[in-house]
Amino acid sequence: MALIDRLKQARFFRKLMYMGLGVVTYPGLAIMNRLRISGTEHLKGLPRKNVLFVSNHQTYFADVIALLHIFCAVKWGKMNRLGIPYYLINPFTNVFYVAAAETMSSSWISKFFTLGGALTVRRAWKGDKRKGLDPSDTRKIARALENNWIIQFPQGTTTPFAPGRKGTAYLIKTHKPIVIPVIIDGFNKAFDKKGLKLKKKGTELSVEFKQAMELDYEAPVEVLLDQVMTAIGQKRASHPAIPGNMGQPPATDTVQPTPGS
User: What is the pTM of this model?
Assistant: First the structure.
């Protein structure tokens, strides 16, 4: 196992990472902006393994960072709020997030974030067309799911109403996790695309956790994916008009991979 993978698996190291990361990012979420959280009651009583959080995606890093803050706060009994971040003294580290290898290797800071629990995946390509995840990466996610919570962004892009990718549905069908839908909003207004630079102060950021989905794990992957996309408010057939594109679904051939890929 590579050194970086060993560090990611070391709980003590990740606790230190989350403490430092949390201290630096807390002001942007809860002081310079307003973070509204709802639905954390649906996290109570969840097992510490085989839980999959599926969410829409607005920035490369701020979305994940907000979820990590919330998980830590819930561990300390805080419901639907962060409050004073004393939860960083003993953060919740039983969670990983799926991230595109291209994104996580693009800069020194993204490489640093990889140590915070990123499951980096690479796309399998055929010619100039993207055909899905490399099989070894699929196994990597599956192994992590056996003992942890996993955050996954089914669209793999910050483009709203982009189509979901079947890898999420295959993961659900094969491993039958508890699936918690998450809807986020406001992050693309408050932060730049990477989610590291504050763009606008005083923005309302919202994170809504929904009740665990009732799924038929034997259903076709297309059906499971459709249910997931509906649950996170990203089903293309019913999306509202998006300013600048007259409400048409965005083109997918120019979408760049992001931490949810």
Answer: 0.84
